[in-house]
Amino acid sequence: MSAFDAIVVGGGPNGLAAAITLARAGRSVLVREAKDRLGGGARTAELTLPGFQHDICSAIHPLGVASPFFRSLPLTDFGLQWIHPELPLAHPIDGDRAARVSRSLEETADGFGEDVKAYRQVFEYFCRHAESLLEETLGPLHFPKHPLLLARFGLRGVRSAKAFVDRWFQTDEVRGMFAGLAAHSMLPLDQRLTAAVGLMFGVTAHTKGWPFPRGGSEQLIVAMQRYLESLGGQVEVDAPVESLNELPSAKAILFDLSPRQLVQIAGDELPARYRNKLQKFRHGPGSFKLDWALDGPIPWTSDACRRAGTVHVGGTFEEIAVSEQAIWDGQPCQRPFVLVAQQSRFDDSRAPQGKHTGWGYCHVPAGCTVDMTDQIEAQIERFAPGFRDLILERHRMFPRDLEHYNANYIGGDITGGVMDVWQTFTRPVARWNPYTTPSPRIFICSASTPPGAGVHGMCGWHAAHAALSRTLR
Ligand SMILES: Cc1cc2nc3c(=O)[nH]c(=O)nc-3n(C[C@H](O)[C@H](O)[C@H](O)COP(=O)(O)OP(=O)(O)OC[C@H]3O[C@@H](n4cnc5c(N)ncnc54)[C@H](O)[C@@H]3O)c2cc1C
């Protein structure tokens, strides 16, 4: 008899999502986590000075409130509090201008001058059908329940962000703002499917908001752990898994890990052909991250930037396109596109009174060793003069530090593998059910499966359902 119905290796958001789904279905489950706390890409720590709580990886969680999996959980009963900043996003442009993205589509569009009509036309229909759109897109390829909606989304989204803005938008503000949304793909902006990423982030801003958990992203994990334990699930931390032999017996093992680690740990149980395919899985560019302890809030000149939880710093579409192309050409850009979050403006638990935190990163080539501190801070200073004078302490993470922190971030790749047209739908390998492997007891549930990167839990949720229907019936 097996000690557990299922063991989940890795306690990131997807591993926990898988464990919760299994426990909810009445199965006994154990999560084995390498580090001293659960969370993976969603953890919080005093990285700079005492009393300053920084999100080590993920900070802003549109998909934490939007994903069908998270919406099905009673996490507020387990201590989670979402904070919605006044504006989800602002995007400054030189000349004291900024795109202001609010929860209201109407209000946002009204601020977009010549692009008012086009902005409404692009987003209105998808915002009206946001629930169905999220349901259709946050998972593997399947027969759609809403074929017309998906076809319409596909026709627009399959384009590159470049083709998309050239077709729809004229103003620097909206073109630049859309570039920032699409750049979350970490792909060159003239690549197909980058428009879909921009559209989805826009839709979530208007329909769900871009919130973050009070106290830090780890609070989402703390609530998930409490809920899992209330269902009878068990957790072991400080328990890295190096081979299947060291695990208690279980009918199913789900890996919240990269394909490379899956091969290292479970390769003996997988046929050579499948192993080879896993080894061909492509990882993308890296990230260079900074966290700041600040003597005051970031002094943006634009009012919109002061009111937003997230500020995309990179200027016009053309500038951001150059920055994102450069990382694929092997050289980080001197004026990088920087994603900035300023949680302490809206959450007084993040820093001592009167002080603030800042979170920012830019994309760089995989494994890049260039120190991007000056370039990132110069970009913020460009739109917030006096920013540097407020820095009390900074903490930096090169791609190698990200990989050291979490073995899933190979070369500093934070998306769990390239999310281009091919690999988005065939991650980690092309299979009818990508969460299964040729071994009936081994499954993969990390961001290296559809729908990919982000704290949405959908990879774990789909993988748990695969295990329930295949092995744990
Ligand atoms: C700098 C940065 C910024 C980001 N910003 C955002 C954001 O704002 N919003 C957002 O939604 N997403 C963001 N992300 C992405 C998000 O963090 C990831 O997509 C998400 O965490 C993936 O979840 P996961 O469960 O698949 O894997 P992970 O979070 O990587 O979790 C994997 C877990 O497995 C553990 N593990 C690894 N190897 C072993 C082993 N051998 N044995 C046992 N345990 C092991 C790890 O310690 C980790 O806890 C960001 C990521 C980074 C790095």
UniProtKB/TrEMBL annotation:
Q: Tell me, what's a Pfam family for it?
A: NAD_binding_8
MF terms per GO, please? oxidoreductase activity
Question: Which InterPro entries would you find in this protein's record?
Answer: FAD/NAD-bd_sf
This entry's Enzyme Commission designation comes to: 1.3.99.31
Q: Read off the SUPFAM superfamilies from this record.
A: FAD/NAD(P)-binding domain
- Which Gene3D superfamilies does the entry mention? 3.90.660.50, FAD/NAD(P)-binding domain (3.50.50.60)
Look up keyword Metal-binding and say if it applies: no
Please give the superkingdom of this protein's source.
Bacteria
Q: Which UniProt keywords apply?
A: Oxidoreductase
Name of the protein in its database record: Phytoene desaturase (Lycopene-forming)
Name the source organism. Roseimaritima ulvae
